[in-house]
Amino acid sequence: MTAPVARGARTNLGLLALLAAAFLTGWLAFAFAAAPARWSLVVHATSGVALIALLPWKSMIARRGMRRAQPGRWASILFGVLVVVSLAAGFLHSTGIAISIGPLSAMDFHVGAAIAAVPLAIWHVAARRVRIRPADLSRRAALRGGAVVAGAAAAYALSEVVVRAGNLPGASRRFTGSYEAGSNDPDLLPVSSWMFDAIPEVDATTWRLRTPARTWTYDELSSFDDRVTATLDCTGGFYSTQEWSGVRLDRILKDAHGASIRVVSHTGYDRRFDLSSVNRLLLATRVGGRPLDPGHGFPVRLVAPDHRGFWWVKWVAAIEVDEVPHWFQSPFPLQ
Ligand code: HEM
Ligand code: HEM
Predict the structure, then answer these.
(1) Closest-lying ligand to the alpha carbon of 118?
(2) Ligand minimally distant from the alpha carbon of residue 131
(3) Would you give the distance in Å from CA 86 to the centre of its chain?
(4) Of 10, 61, 87, 123, best ligand 2 pocket probe by most atoms within 8 Å of the beta carbon
(5) Are 242 and 183 in contact (CB under 8 A)?
(6) 3-class SS at 233?
(7) Cβ neighbours of residue 204 under 8 Å, at least 6 residues apart?
(8) 223 three-class SS
(9) Phi, psi (5° rounding) for residue 224?
């Protein structure tokens, strides 16, 4: 057994490293709403393009595998289809050729297909064992790998130039990859949720906000007029800058002691923040001077500037303060 087998192992290992890099940097970009998200996405896109560069080699391996007709090969094909769907949706989004596909966004397809591919990827790697030889990890192999990644980075840079020169919609993306939607016009602000939250019907006359010291009525909270202009940047792929008004959290949590606050929605959805950040958080009753509508969090929602949209808890029902550190939570909500 000589060169072709060894090359197959290197290709498969390369694919594994690139898939892992793309997956991790995708989530890293979702975790931040600040400029470093861009660097994560540069690595992300480069990994994606490098995956495509390896496809000619992988197709030789796959053809050989298919000839062997091993059990489970259809699962490998399904895995391949999901990776292709994820890649295609990523490019549709980034170029702006199609930001939404039917009722879903290109980002929904992109991330959804990638998540669905994870169990198949684990199975594929476990069921199709790669035998690693010293030659696979040699200096020459590393140089080749480096050349593939450098080529992919150059191809990605070129694609960004083409998007701008061709004036494709993708040229207007923010550093998170999101597109502007309805800024300063609340009627055009899209309605979106992290995963499964359905819009609840809340009766403002009986609704109360619970804080450690007391409860608040909707009218009491509406009488505050703290304002902030902040950008909601949704992981679904859009951003929108609006003027939000309501009450700064430090005003209603005056004497609270503890390590963190837990902002809980009527739906059970929650996010934790460091107690020291409450003067930068707003509990909004209005957007653009008008009461929120149910889709945007009526009666009150959190406005968390410089945090991705999934931190902006809607339909807030309670704010708790306790000794749990703010980082002691799943980095992404599970509901
Ligand atoms: C199989 C795994 C994945 C692959 C191969 C992949 C690959 C890609 C590619 C090729 C692009 C287009 C890049 C461009 O031309 O600008 C892209 C965009 C993007 N991906 Fe992924 N991706 C994967 C998973 C994920 C995951 C799990 C997330 C988030 C949790 C994610 C978030 C993003 C974002 C936010 C963009 C938009 C970047 C922009 O427009 O600048 N990706 N991805
Ligand atoms: C983009 C990611 C990948 C796709 C789309 C993919 C797809 C496929 C397909 C369709 C086959 C042929 C059917 C089969 O034998 O089940 C195959 C075979 C195989 N794959 Fe992958 N694969 C990917 C990544 C990997 C990775 C990361 C590894 C290991 C680290 C790997 C190892 C193998 C091996 C060893 C075979 C069998 C080759 C043979 O029997 O001669 N693949 N792959």
Answers:
(1) 1
(2) 2
(3) 14
(4) 61
(5) yes
(6) strand
(7) 218, 298, 299
(8) coil
(9) -80, 155
Residue 291 pLDDT exceeds 70? yes
Task: Please provide residue 154's backbone torsions phi and psi, each rounded to the nearest 5 degrees.
Answer: -65, -40
- Which residue's alpha carbon is at the smallest distance from atom 33 of ligand 1? 26
HSE at residue 59, side-chain half, CA atoms within 13 A, is 5
Our answer on whether the CB atom of 70 is closer than 6 Å to any ligand 2 atom is yes
Query: Are 124 and 104 within 8 A, CB to CB?
Result: no
pLDDT at 6: 46
Of 281 and 335, more confident: 281
The total of other beta-carbon atoms located within 10 Å of residue 107's CB is: 23
Atom of ligand 2 nearest to the CA of 63: 12
What number does the ligand 2 atom closest to the CA of 13 have?
Answer: 30
How far does the centroid of ligand 2 lie from the alpha carbon of residue 11, in Å? Answer: 10
Write the CB contacts of 193 (distance below 8 Å, at least 6 apart in sequence). 314
Task: Give the Cα separation of 269 and 292 in Å (integer).
Answer: 19
- Its sign, for the CA torsion 53, 55, 60, 64, is positive
* 298 vs 196: CA distance, rounded Å: 18
How many Cα atoms occupy the beta-carbon half-sphere of 226 within 13 Å?
17
For 102, counting Cβ atoms within 10 Å of its Cβ (0-12 exposed, 13-18 middle, 19+ buried), the class is exposed
Which tens digit of pLDDT belongs to each residue from 106-153? 999 999 999 999 999 999 999 998 888 888 888 988 999 999 999 999
Name the helix (H) or strand (E) containing 232: strand 226-234
Sequence-distant contacts of 143-146: CB under 8 A, at least 24 apart: 144/10, 145/10, 145/14
Cα of 3 from ligand 2 centre, angstroms: 18
